[in-house]
Write a structure and sequence with these properties.
A: alpha/beta; 8-stranded mixed sheet; B: about 625 residues; alpha/beta; 22 strands; binds thiamine diphosphate; binds iron/sulfur cluster
């Protein structure tokens, strides 16, 4: 008998299974974009055939970090900015788990920026959803790394002097093999992109535009968006790094002054995931390590066998 | 000072092969039946600079580096001759000779490499005069020239070993065998030639009247020579650890590398990551998913781990961290030992956080307590920390091979199987009550692993309900907090019952003067106590290993049994004495401190002197670089 029977279970899965039956009810403000992420995940997970118990959602801290409180999977609500290293290791320990990390733009692009770059660089096979509301929500409206230049907040009362970070370009440059942007105001596209990201073998980064009606009323996320894939104005090959980079640049420029573009920007299906690379060089066991602890027949090597070199 | 011991010091520049040479020589001495103990001194520099390794060998047990030494093999710093213009090397070639003389005992032997150290330099340091005063026996030898003739310059180490063996009347057999194990073909041949020629040259050309000989001894069982870092790595392996994440920092890097090198064969995973926050967070993630995991660092890196440490405490994720101390604050003395991170390790992290902290005092304890750390962490779902230092990390000592002959412990402690999960408590929506406080035994709430059927819950760093949801209800808060805090009491009970041997006692049981120490100072203190008793004093000692939960009863009994006690530790602020007083709430008037924080570990003689100064009725100060911090009211 396997120790992880919920993994790989084949059956019809209802999206309601992902909703906690009792408390807690979401504490997000009415109209918050975070509801959109929750909804698209609940739709995407049954679509890709994942049961609640084989999914591990790892979140950071912020309004966004509460995602897994309202989504009924295995969950780890970590600390501010640290969801990625926790998620990455869980995946290495048991590659059969579906690991999804999530957090806010402050959480992921600010305090957790170092982890983000390195997780992308190594191309870990996890999905990373960043709730990008261009603001710190939970701590009441301070400027975030994606807030536009000139943005006024209590901590930058004269308007921010900082140029906003470009998350899509950053991720591409760091090595992510799937980079997309979607928006809570477009549930259909959001669901599709999340499902694709989950199925992608490698680091799939989804910059999810989520409006924060409470602290960031001016943000562009409310305006209609254009799907880059569906518009004739934006013809490019999503498998081509250079073209993708150029498109991202354009998008990241225009987000601040008018048109909001969403869609897939870069997909590299050929790049092996970190786990595959690590297996190839002999640093990763073939079988899930977590399983071994339940295997009564497993032979555990012991240090005594290493002593010869010391005698 | 014992006469039947050899303390051999090999000195040169970093990168001169001092390490491998001394490692082999130490093994040869061990194989010849002696107990050995090595001490390594090196600067924070990759190549060049003054570095030495000391090997102490005797027929009886050796627990410390001893005081001073009696044989110097001075190779000359080859990197001092680096011709690069911008490099400042000055006149450092002589250093491996000049820098070592102060601690050389009377009647000692000096061998130096004439090939690298010039005559004028030797004259400039008045070697002849000093040798006469101290009855040193000096043997200038062209080791470099000899090596060059048969192979390459670097092989002058081998020439030095050959000379040593001849001067000490030592059989070459073990040295030859070790060489054959480590090298082959031309290299082996050249080295053997050099070894023999050096050996014979001494025998033919020198008449020596010194009486230092290699001691003779015999081991009844097979011995292994290994370091504290080896012991911690092996304890982890046998404790079932198969995941390590880290970021390099001296001296923790040793444990990290040893496990990394062994894991591929064992089916384990090692990750070198972007920083120490990530490293500890990875260990938390792997442990959460069902693999016994560890991480670690030295002080500065451990500072970054305080966040994931707290996360592990709050989510009750088992975790083992090692903290390998070096002198601080900040980057401090990167390659020198100190015992000054104790308070930091005990109280790092916000809130009423608890963790288990073990401080092994020697190689055997390092292995034993690392195994125990894994057991306790997985049983009680709490972080355990092994705190040790650069000294214990790098020193090598022989240990009976049989000591390590035990079964590994891959059990995941209080982790439920799917069968057991069926019987466990769930809430109405089917969520597993992972943080159930109602029927927790020993304050432990068993856990499930992601992917198990029937085990869904949320682990959260916020205060949480039994199924893991963020919960601010006061009754729930009190119940969860109390259970987590009281785990330490349950652990104390288990340690008292099953592992009372964590604390080590030595000396004269009836003595009314006590010495208390912790961690790697153990060896020097134990030896000092033995000497004091041999000299007619009456002293006893205890080395405490459990830092949290503290062995209150044992330490109380020890202090109550003496009139006065001296706490010996390598730091400037008497942190361990502070811990004793905090934990026991008294004894301020009974405890004196002997402190050392100059970057070098205690030598037994310093502890002996500390005792004498402490008991003297005058205002005497210790002569060495140590400090006495009087008892309260003194
Ligand atoms: C180490 C640390 N620093 C600061 C905080 C306080 N804090 C909580 S959430 C947050 C910012 C959240 O912003 P974002 O990640 O954009 O998420 P949002 O709330 O907008 O979803 C901060 C600074 C914390 N919890 N931990
Ligand atoms: S503060 Fe903003 S981000 Fe947070 S819940 Fe309210 S609307 Fe959403």
């Amino acid at each position: 008998m396997s120790a992880f029977n919920a993994i790989g279970e084949e059956r019809e899965i209802d999206r309601d299974e992902f909703t906690p039956g009792v408390e807690p009810q979401p504490t997000w403000c009415p109209g918050c974009g975070d509801f959109g992420v929750l909804k698209s995940l609940k739709q995407a997970l049954p679509e890709v055939g994942r049961t609640p118990e084989e999914v591990l959602t790892v979140t950071g801290i912020g309004c966004s970090g509460k995602l897994n409180s309202y989504l009924d999977t295995y969950g780890f609500h970590t600390i501010h900015g640290r969801s990625l290293p926790v998620a990455r290791a869980a995946k290495l320990a048991n590659p059969e788990l579906e690991v999804i990390a999530a957090g806010g733009d402050g959480d992921g692009y600010g305090i957790g920026g170092n982890h983000w770059i390195h997780t992308a660089r190594e191309n870990h096979d996890i999905t990373y959803i960043v709730f990008n509301n261009e603001i710190f929500g939970l701590t009441k409206g301070q400027t975030s790394p994606t807030s536009p230049k000139g943005h006024k907040s209590k901590t930058q009362p004269s308007g921010s002097a900082k140029t906003p970070l470009r998350p899509l370009s950053m991720s591409l440059n760091a090595g992510a093999s799937y980079v997309a942007r979607t928006a809570a105001v477009n549930p259909n596209q959001a669901k599709e992109i999340i499902a694709e990201a989950i199925e992608h073998d490698g680091f799939a980064h989804v910059d999810f535009l989520t409006q924060c009606p409470t602290w960031n009323k001016d943000a562009r996320q409310y305006v209609p968006y254009i799907d880059v894939q569906e518009s004739d104005d934006y013809d490019f090959d999503i498998h081509d790094r250079r073209e993708a980079a150029e498109m991202m640049h354009e998008t990241e420029d225009v987000l601040k002054d008018g048109t909001v573009l969403t869609g897939r920007y870069y997909v590299d299906d050929d790049r092996p995931s970190y786990q595959q690379e690590k297996t190839a060089v002999g640093e990763m066991p073939d079988e899930p390590l977590a399983e071994r602890y339940f295997d009564d027949d497993a032979e555990w090597e012991r240090s005594y066998d290493l002593l010869e070199r010391h005698t | 000072m014992s006469d039947d011991e050899l303390i051999w010091r090999i000195a040169g520049g970093s990168g001169d092969g001092i390490d491998s040479t001394s490692q082999n020589f130490a093994k040869a001495l061990m194989r010849s039946g002696l107990d050995v103990f090595t001490h390594r001194h090196y600067p924070s520099r990759i190549r060049g600079g003054h570095t030495y390794v000391e090997i102490r060998a005797a027929a009886d047990e050796v627990q410390s580096r001893g005081d001073g030494y009696n044989f110097l093999l001075s190779l000359g710093d080859s990197f001092a001759r680096n011709p690069q213009e911008e490099a400042y090397y000055g006149n450092e070639e002589i250093k491996p000779l000049s820098e070592n003389l102060d601690e050389l005992r009377e009647g000692g032997i000096i061998v130096y490499d004439e090939g690298l150290i010039s005559e004028e330099d030797v004259e400039a340091i008045n070697l002849e005069e000093r040798a006469e005063e101290n009855d040193w026996h000096v043997f200038p030898m062209d080791l470099r020239g000899l090596a060059k003739e048969h192979g390459r310059e670097v092989m002058r180490n081998t020439a030095g070993v050959g000379v040593t063996a001849a001067l000490l009347d030592m059989d070459l057999e073990h040295i030859e065998n070790l060489m054959s194990d480590a090298m082959s073909d031309d290299i082996l041949e050249a080295n053997l030639e050099i070894l023999h020629e050096a050996y014979e040259t001494v025998n033919e050309e020198y008449e020596f009247e010194h009486d230092l000989r290699v001691p003779t001894g015999e081991h009844e069982t097979e011995q292994a020579l290994l370091s504290g870092s080896n012991a911690i790595a092996y304890g982890a392996i046998d404790g079932g650890c198969r995941f390590i994440a880290g970021y390099p920092m001296t001296p923790w890097t040793d444990v990290f590398t040893i496990l990394t090198q062994n894991f591929p064969e064992m089916g384990g995973i090692s990750e070198q990551v972007e920083d120490e926050i990530a490293a500890a967070a990875l260990a938390v993630g792997a442990s959460h998913a069902g693999v016994k995991a560890m991480s670690g660092s030295s002080g500065g890196g451990f500072a970054l781990m305080s966040e994931p440490l707290g996360l592990a405490e709050m989510t009750e994720t088992p975790l083992v961290l090692v903290e390998s101390m070096r002198a601080g604050p900040s980057t401090g003395l990167p390659t020198k030992p100190e015992q000054a991170d104790l308070e930091f390790v005990l109280y790092t992290s916000q809130g009423d956080s608890s963790r288990v902290v073990f401080a092994p005092g020697n190689i055997e304890e390092a292995y034993e307590q690392t195994r125990l750390a894994f057991d306790i962490a997985w049983e009680y779902q709490i972080p355990t920390i092994i705190i040790y230092d650069q000294k214990l990390s790098g020193e090598n000592k022989n240990v009976d091979v049989e000591f390590f002959d035990r079964e590994p412990e891959p059990g995941l402690g209080s982790t439920l199987t799917e069968e057991e999960l069926k019987e466990a408590a769930h809430d109405v929506s089917g969520k597993f009550k992972r943080f159930n406080y109602e029927d927790a035994e020993n304050n432990v709430a068993p856990r499930s692993l992601p992917g198990q059927k029937g085990g869904r819950y949320l682990a959260t760093g916020n205060e949480h309900s039994p199924v893991g949801h963020i919960e601010e209800d006061p009754d729930n808060r009190v119940a969860q907090m109390t259970r987590r805090v009281e785990k330490l009491e349950s652990i104390r009970e288990e340690l008292d019952e099953e592992h009372p041997s964590n604390q080590t006692y030595f000396g004269d049981e009836t003595a009314d003067y006590g010495i208390i120490t912790w961690g790697s100072s153990h060896g020097a203190v134990a030896e000092a106590v033995e000497r004091l008793n041999d000299d007619g004093h009456s002293v006893k000692g205890i080395t405490v290993s459990d830092m949290m939960p503290f062995p209150e009863q044992e330490v109380t009994e020890f202090i109550e049994s003496v009139d006065e006690a001296m706490v010996v530790e390598m730091n400037a602020t008497a942190q361990f004495r502070g811990l004793i007083q905090k934990e026991l709430g008294r004894f301020g008037e009974k405890l004196t401190s002997l402190l050392k924080y100059n970057g070098n570990p205690f030598e037994p003689a310093e502890v002996v002197e500390g005792y004498e100064v402490n008991l003297a009725e005058d205002d005497r100060e210790p002569t060495a670089q140590v400090r006495i911090e009087p008892a309260a009211g003194d």
